[in-house]
């Protein structure tokens, strides 16, 4: 398993990690197989989404805020909504590898999703089948 260390700058932030993941899988000479980016933090997520229009990510964040509006959560540390955001998106997302890079649609990228930043985080990559 390989770890990337994204640092987030904002409370809520999407970081496009596609290039970093592709650089890592390319160095492994992982011609084919699977890549599983996994986030070991309960207030972060990983998603594959559109990377061409930044408005799409702002819509996603607005959707999460609207769905999970504060209804008097009593979770210690004030992280109820960030934790529920992670549940909605998930801590991991798998993509196939071909020619050492992720098999994604032409408008897709892999995003590290921060919901309780800014922080120094980890993103683990499990690469199989190479």
Notes on the structure:
- This protein has 130 residues and is α+β, with helices and mostly antiparallel strands.
- The protein has a single domain, classed as YjbQ-like (Jelly Rolls, Sandwich).
- The chain has helices spanning 18-27, 54-67, 80-89; strands spanning 2-4, 13-16, 32-38, 44-50, 95-98, 101-102, 108-114, 123-128.
- The strands form 2 sheets. A 5-stranded antiparallel sheet has the order 1-8-3-5-6, with helices on one face.
- Strand 5 and strand 6 (101-102) form a beta hairpin.
- The two termini are 13 Å apart.
- The mean pLDDT is 93.
Instruction: Give start-end ranges of low-pLDDT stretches.
Output: none
- The averaged pLDDT comes out at 93
In the sheet with the most strands, the strands line up as 1-8-3-5-6
Which fold does the CATH topology refer to? Jelly Rolls
Order of helices and strands: EEHEEHHEEEE
Q: Give helix % range.
A: 25-40%
CATH homologous group name: YjbQ-like
- The proportion of strand residues reads 25-35%
**Top-tier CATH class:** Mainly Beta
- Sketch the major β-sheet: 5 strands, antiparallel
Give the class from helix and strand content and strand pairing.
Answer: alpha+beta
Radius of gyration (CA) equals 15 Å
User: How many extended strands?
Assistant: 8
Which of globular, elongated, flat, extended, rod-shaped describes the shape? globular
Count of helical stretches: 3
Question: Span between N and C termini?
Answer: 13 Å
Number of domains: 1
CATH architecture: Sandwich
């Amino acid at each position: 398993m390989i770890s990337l260390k994204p640092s987030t700058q904002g409370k809520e932030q999407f970081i496009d990690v596609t290039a970093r993941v592709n650089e890592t899988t390319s160095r492994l000479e992982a011609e084919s197989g699977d890549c599983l980016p996994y986030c070991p933090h309960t207030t972060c997520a990983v998603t594959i989404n559109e990377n061409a229009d930044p408005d799409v990510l702002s819509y996603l964040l607005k959707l999460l805020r609207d769905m999970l509006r504060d209804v008097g959560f009593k979770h210690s540390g004030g992280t109820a909504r960030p934790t529920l955001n992670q549940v909605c998106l998930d801590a991991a997302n798998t993509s196939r590898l071909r020619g050492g890079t992720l098999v994604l649609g032409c408008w897709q990228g892999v995003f590290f999703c921060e919901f309780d930043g800014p922080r120094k985080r980890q993103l683990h990559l499990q690469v199989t089948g190479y």
